[in-house]
Every structure is written in structure tokens, then in C-alpha cells.
Amino acid sequence: MTKTVVISGGGSGIGLATARYFAERGAQVAIIGRRKSVLEDAAVAIAREFPQAPNVLVIAGDLGNAPEVEAIKADLSDRLSTLDVLVNAAGGHVLRQFPAETYADGLAGVARRWNDNFRNNTLAAVLLTEALLPQLRSPGGRIILLSSIAAYRGSGNGCYGGAKAALHPYCFDLAKSLGGKGITVNAIAPGYVSETGFFGTALSDALHQAKIAETMNGRAGIPADIAHTIGWLASAEAAHITGQIIQVNGGAERGR
């Protein structure tokens, strides 16, 4: 039986690495995001790399917008009868994604930074998850949320770390409510992951080295580190793991 996997943010970074992981293993993968061209490029690249895998389904939409998520739900229900794995990898720090001048000064700027981070990181995961719950295989379904080391250590201004931390009680509550149906819910908290667009072009070599110095194993994370952890959580071998926040950050959360 072909496993069906939906990945938000599947066009780049950790989401793309996760899509590649499941495609390599013959899964039917659907990737969701706001940038259709990025998703289409990812689908073409995956098809070229793993020609034996089913064609990757591409669905563009704003996951922070309820009507658009309803449309995504309808599209997926038409194309996939049952869903095995849902990976919520979409998100990002809005202050890393947009120039500082995008945000006004004063309380208006504070409100927008917090609202935008909450919308992109918390609400996007919650809306997609709630929309697709009826399609999840029961028993056997898997939901995986992407948190961050910032949920534990802060993010320098509160709004990104706070948005990621909000996923933790959601993870616990969802795991409890779905446990009786044989569906597991877990979150992963990555630390510094290189080879992604999280920092844009703003990451200097000095900051790169400083991030590595925080780890206990002396290296940066890579998207495949997170993708393989997601793959394990989605496996039958991890059926008794639920309601957990898995640290994948080289020990950086503990500090040195």
C-alpha cells in the first residue's frame, strides 16, 4: 500500500528534504505552500531524482487564511482518499523574511510582528491540521509539527519563539484527543539548520561559527537531519511515541 504524505512548506528547506525522504521510499507526496512556482520546481526536481515515485502533487495556498485552507482541504479530498502522514513544516521568522522597514515603529509594529509570526507558524499549522483530521488514517495516522529551539531559548524579540512555543500545548492536547484512535502527534524542535532560507542572506560566517559552537557535536544541522527524524516518527516503529517535543539541535538547547 502506497503511503500518502502531505507536507506544508514542502517547496524548500526542511519541507523539501522531507518530501524527498518520502518520495525516495515510494510515497505519494503532496506539497503545499504559498509560492506555486517554488512548489512546481520542487516537484520537477523530485521526479527527476526519484522517477519511481508517484508524481508529487502541488497545491498552492495561504495556510493562514481559513477559506484558502478549506479549498486546500477540498482539493486534497478529491485527490487522496486517506492521509497517512501530515507534516507541518511551513513557517519562518517574519523579521528574517522581510526587511525591517516593512514593520512600523511603536506598538503598531510590535502588534504586526507578533500577529504575522503567529499566523505563519501557529495558525497555519493548526488550520491545516484541523482541516485534514477527517482524512487521517485511523489507526496509524501521524501528525508532525515543526517547532524550534527558539521556543525554549527565545528568538531575540519574543515573537518567533512565542509562535513556535504555542504549538507545544496544541501538540499535547491533540495527542491526547487522538490517542484512542491510534493517531500520534509529535513536534520537532530543530536548532540551527544550514542549507535553508531561514536566515536569508543575513547569516555571516561569524554567526554561522557561533551557532555551531553552541552544539555539543560541533556541527550545524542540515535539513536531512530533521527529515530523517520525521520519517522515524511517521514509521510503525514509533507507534508508541506521541505528545513529545523531539530536540534535534546537536544539544544546543542545553548550551555549552
UniProtKB/TrEMBL annotation:
<feature type="domain" description="Ketoreductase">
    <location>
        <begin position="3"/>
        <end position="196"/>
    </location>
</feature>
<dbReference type="InterPro" id="IPR020904">
    <property type="entry name" value="Sc_DH/Rdtase_CS"/>
</dbReference>
<dbReference type="InterPro" id="IPR002347">
    <property type="entry name" value="SDR_fam"/>
</dbReference>
<dbReference type="InterPro" id="IPR052178">
    <property type="entry name" value="Sec_Metab_Biosynth_SDR"/>
</dbReference>
<protein>
    <submittedName>
        <fullName>SDR family oxidoreductase</fullName>
        <ecNumber>1.-.-.-</ecNumber>
    </submittedName>
</protein>
<keyword id="KW-0560">Oxidoreductase</keyword>
<dbReference type="InterPro" id="IPR036291">
    <property type="entry name" value="NAD(P)-bd_dom_sf"/>
</dbReference>
<dbReference type="InterPro" id="IPR057326">
    <property type="entry name" value="KR_dom"/>
</dbReference>
<comment type="similarity">
    <text>Belongs to the short-chain dehydrogenases/reductases (SDR) family.</text>
</comment>
<dbReference type="Pfam" id="PF13561">
    <property type="entry name" value="adh_short_C2"/>
</dbReference>
<keyword id="KW-0521">NADP</keyword>
<dbReference type="GO" id="GO:0016491">
    <property type="term" value="F:oxidoreductase activity"/>
</dbReference>
